[in-house]
Write a sequence for this structure.
């Protein structure tokens, strides 16, 4: 990763100058996987992939304003990551990668991101989210619809790329290229900073770290780090947090690479302590837990999945007790994995019933969750699968999901949008503990 600092008000630019990269020719062969950006504390991690070895410039500009960075990217390899820091809090920026002289310059797609607000700022922010994007569902119309919405960040809650047939670096690269080449991803990822949460399919279906061949795991992780706008390298922790002013802190969990089923560990004890300490010490109004599998206690009629938090009762209790017994408020859980759009209480009764979980998407799973359709066809089964005192919304239809966290009104607006019509299937203002 190349680290650069931008000048917020370059002295060489006269007042009123607006940088416009659209006059440059877009080269989708050179920049064959588009662009992405990751969130940092004071800027962004800009990402692209070049199909051939070519020198690149990275350009960043204030939205509706002047160019603030035009620098040579000195890095080897096809994958390019540039960290741009010390930008203006809360400001929106555009970026582009450029190859060639100004007379015949070719550029990447144009990207945009917003820098987190100042640490003491309270303001609403909108998180777009999805999960489960299987290539059999391409093009991902839910992602295309998401790209048409207004939002500050995009988060994917796991199963970004289904790499189940990959066994070596070449096949992982091929699978990731297929995913990132989809029109939905090409439209969505340039729109805002991207927070990825990793689940199993990015490496192998329901993989167990200790049972996967070491060389395959190494190749899968190397491909994952290369194809996503995350800093670091294989072996680094994937769990992290991001603050959006005083409005929200987002806790990104890793429930795969540190999972040890034979020890009853959904995550390492280090990650568990970090999560609990972070939730308890965060000054932010909302604490948002980004997690690839549900933490809710699902009804007994559901299949007995051993893959979710319920199979790791001790660590699940530790997290939920820290929230309820610690008197924490506005802790929200976002998840994916089960191929449905859901809004539900963590448990049907007791103090944990005040906690809400939102299952986002689905973005494009190979198979939709049959349970929401089943209860529509057989209403008598509804209370068995979706008891009304726990479930607020349920659907197996593809959807763009958006959540607006408003610390002023102390509400969260949750929307599931039909990608075929652009109309909301569900649009509600929710409050911690209330439907």
């Amino acid at each position: 990763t190349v680290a650069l600092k931008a000048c917020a008000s370059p002295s060489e630019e006269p007042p009123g100058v607006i940088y416009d990269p659209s006059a440059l020719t877009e080269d989708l062969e050179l920049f064959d996987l588009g662009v992405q950006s990751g969130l940092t504390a004071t800027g962004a991690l800009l990402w692209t992939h070049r199909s051939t070895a070519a020198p690149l410039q990275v350009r960043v500009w204030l939205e509706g304003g002047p160019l603030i960075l035009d620098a040579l990217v000195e890095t080897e390899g096809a994958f390019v990551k540039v960290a741009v820091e010390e930008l203006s809090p809360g400001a929106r920026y555009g970026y582009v990668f450029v190859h060639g002289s100004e007379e015949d310059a070719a550029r990447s797609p144009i990207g945009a991101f917003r820098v987190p607000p100042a640490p003491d700022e309270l303001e609403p922010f909108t998180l777009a989210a999805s999960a489960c994007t299987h290539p059999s569902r391409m093009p991902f119309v839910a992602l295309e619809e998401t790209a048409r919405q207004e939002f500050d960040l995009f988060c994917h809650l796991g199963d970004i790329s289904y790499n189940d047939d990959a066994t070596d670096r070449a096949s992982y690269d091929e699978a990731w290229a297929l995913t990132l080449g989809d029109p939905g991803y090409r439209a969505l990822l340039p729109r805002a900073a991207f927070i990825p949460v990793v689940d199993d399919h990015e490496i192998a279906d329901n993989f167990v770290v200790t049972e996967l061949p070491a060389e395959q795991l190494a190749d899968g992780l190397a491909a994952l780090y290369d194809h996503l706008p995350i800093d670091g390298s294989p072996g680094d922790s994937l769990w992290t947090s991001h603050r959006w002013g005083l409005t929200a802190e987002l806790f990104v969990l890793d429930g795969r690479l540190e999972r040890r089923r034979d020890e009853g560990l959904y995550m390492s004890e280090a990650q568990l302590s970090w999560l609990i300490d972070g939730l308890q010490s965060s000054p932010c109004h909302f604490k948002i837990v980004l997690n690839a599998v549900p933490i809710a206690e699902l009804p007994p009629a559901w299949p007995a999945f051993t893959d979710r938090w319920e199979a790791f009762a001790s660590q699940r209790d530790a997290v939920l007790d820290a929230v309820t017994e610690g008197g924490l408020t506005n802790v929200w859980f976002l998840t994916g994995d089960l191929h449905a759009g859901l809004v539900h209480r963590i448990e049907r009764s007791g103090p944990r019933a005040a906690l809400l979980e939102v299952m986002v998407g689905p973005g494009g799973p190979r198979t939709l969750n049959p349970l929401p359709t089943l209860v529509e066809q057989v209403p008598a089964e509804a209370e068995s699968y979706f008891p009304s005192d726990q479930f607020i919304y349920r659907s197996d239809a593809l959807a763009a999901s958006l959540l607006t966290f408003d610390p002023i009104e102390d509400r969260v607006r949750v929307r599931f949008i039909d990608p075929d019509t652009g109309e909301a299937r569900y649009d509600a203002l929710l409050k911690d503990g209330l439907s």
About this structure: Residues 9-13 have pLDDT under 50 and may be disordered. The radius of gyration is 22 Å. The longest strand covers residues 92-99. The first helix runs from residue 141 to 147.
